[in-house]
Design a protein that fits this description.
The complex is a heterodimer. Chain A is mainly α. In chain A, 87% of the residues lie in helices and 0% in strands. The radius of gyration of chain A is 21 Å and the shape is elongated. Chain B starts with a strand and ends with a helix. Chain B has ten helices and ten strands. Chain B has one domain: 3-Layer(aba) Sandwich (Rossmann fold), CATH 3.40.50.300. Chain B is α/β, with parallel strands linked by helices. Classes of the chains: A mainly alpha, B alpha/beta. At the A-B interface, α2 and α4 of A face α2 and α3 of B.
């Protein structure tokens, strides 16, 4: 592919994206139907993702605690700093960014495959013939569900991660529980929780819209469906990391 | 009645439809036939507004379809029902939810009224005890019937069917054909069917439009086919020696 084709493709995608977002911005036909769908999606995203978020978060906290304990061993840095670092790492970075990257793989791929499957099975065409604004109908419920549920998952993830670090202290005998708890109470900035929630909302928006867009414009055949799903995950993850950097620069 | 005038459509350099002009009558099953790649599905998609033609006009009972504004288009769309090749049913919804969907979206009926309407259309397509089943629990023929039920739940004035018999056994295909034909006559609907099933052509085709290479190769009625001397239509409809033989025998008997 030469440069001209790449530029042409980029502007085509950009134009298509803008058009698509414009359709998303238009007024939904029937709120009651959207509400029903949003509840269904919230259940799928929230309950469906809770176990995996829980497992990953326990290890976030545990590994951070063990690693930091190793880093400060033999130095003058007091052990209670481990609790402080685990808490802030979990709240500012690990919980929002890694949870959302994980959800891009789980929820994002699912959204792209589900909407792509609807495109391939002509369900989207059927809705368009009926006069339904398909972009709004397919994306709004998922977006609302993600914007409500993903921040909750991120908060849970942060909590579980901190608890994961605490249990390491008991099992690993690297530091005492009281040292860890003292660290948790030290230098707490409520503003960090706000940063975490902002990140969660922005990442939820990115992973949902990017994945839905990839599914909506899927080509024909199972290979294309697989590609759309892969693109959804990769593009969402890249977008999340870029947004993470931008938010970090702006808010800290 | 639907009238299409001088429809042209190309994808890149490939011309798919060229100067298609025809009329599809109310209360009749109007068939579009042709080999794979002849442009049948593209024409059907243009007629329902899923694709825009490069040139040409489409009139739904004198209403210029292509120049309608958003709200007028939406009103017209509520009068259109479409049956897709694979049924196009939501996998994660029950039969009732699938059929009720257009009512949920576009009417202010109460839940009781909607349920009653769903039951009525299910009776029309002769389906019982499937309300709470999922599409995956139904046979191909039953899925098609559910799709027909959804297509007619809003009492459409225009019904479009894309390959309604594909993937069905001959007996079920015949039942689906008869069902569409009955609904068309009983409710005075303008029905346009895109098919390459020759049984359907001879069974329910009131008017037939043959497309070949994106152009109209032949137009006429079912009865005209039997007596036609046009090689194009004869070679298409009676492609097999068996069918050719049957036709010749029928003509000899009449003589």
């Amino acid at each position: 592919m030469n440069i001209a084709r790449i530029i042409e493709h980029f502007f085509f995608q950009l134009g298509q994206w803008c058009q698509w977002m414009w359709m998303l911005a238009s007024r939904p036909e029937k709120w009651s139907v959207y509400y029903r769908e949003a509840i269904r999606q919230a259940d799928a995203i929230g309950i469906g993702s809770l176990p995996v978020v829980f497992i990953i978060s326990v290890f976030f906290g545990a590994v951070t605690a063990v690693q930091f304990s190793y880093q400060i061993s033999g130095t003058f840095v007091p052990n209670y700093y481990i609790g402080y670092i685990v808490r802030d790492m979990s709240i500012i970075e690990l919980a929002p960014t890694f949870t959302c990257m994980l959800l891009a793989g789980k929820v994002g791929a699912n959204i792209a495959t589900e909407i792509g499957g609807m495109r391939q099975k002509e369900i989207i065409d059927a809705m368009e013939v009926m006069g339904v604004n398909t972009v709004a109908f397919l994306v709004w419920p998922r977006l609302v569900a993600a914007l409500l549920v993903i921040p909750m998952l991120v908060v849970i993830s942060a909590g579980v991660s901190i608890v994961g670090g605490f249990y390491t202290s008991i099992w690993g005998n690297l530091f005492t529980a009281s040292e860890y708890i003292l660290g948790l109470h030290s230098f707490f900035e409520p503003y960090n929780v706000f940063i975490m929630l902002v990140k969660a909302v922005v990442f939820a928006f990115l992973l949902t819209t990017i994945s839905a867009y990839q599914g909506y414009f899927v080509g024909t055949g199972s290979i294309e469906l697989g590609r759309a799903s892969t693109r959804a995950v990769v593009f969402s993850d890249v977008a999340i990391l870029i947004a993470d950097y931008v938010i970090a620069v702006i808010m800290t | 009645m639907i009238r299409i005038e001088h429809i042209y459509k190309s994808f890149g350099d490939k011309r798919v439809l060229e100067d298609i002009t025809s009329t599809f009558h109310r209360g009749k099953t109007n068939l579009i036939i042709g080999r794979s790649g002849a442009g049948k599905t593209v024409l059907l998609k243009i007629m329902v507004g899923l694709l825009r033609p490069d040139r040409g006009r489409i009139y739904y009972d004198e209403v210029d379809f292509l120049s309608l504004g958003r709200s007028a288009l939406r009103k017209l769309r509520m009068q259109i029902g479409m049956l897709f090749q694979g049924g196009a049913l939501f996998d994660s919804w029950t039969v009732e939810e699938n059929i009720r969907f257009p009512l949920d979206m576009f009417t202010s009926m109460t839940m009781g009224e909607k349920r009653k309407r769903v039951q009525e259309v299910l009776e029309k397509v002769e389906l019982d005890d499937v309300l709470h089943k999922y599409p995956s629990e139904l046979s191909g023929g039953m899925q098609k019937r559910v799709a027909i039920a959804r297509a007619i739940v809003m009492n459409p004035r225009y019904l479009f069917c894309d390959e309604p018999n594909s993937g069905l056994d001959p007996k079920t295909a015949l039942i689906i054909d008869q069902l569409i034909s009955e609904i068309t006559r009983k409710y005075d609907i303008t029905t346009v069917i895109n098919t390459h099933d020759m049984n359907s052509v001879m069974q329910i085709g009131d008017t037939i439009l043959l497309l070949q290479g994106g152009r109209i190769a032949w137009q006429g009625t079912k009865d005209e086919i039997l007596y036609s001397k046009d090689e194009t239509i004869l070679n298409f409809i009676f492609a097999s020696p068996f069918l050719k033989g049957l036709r010749e025998r029928a003509l000899r008997c009449e003589e």
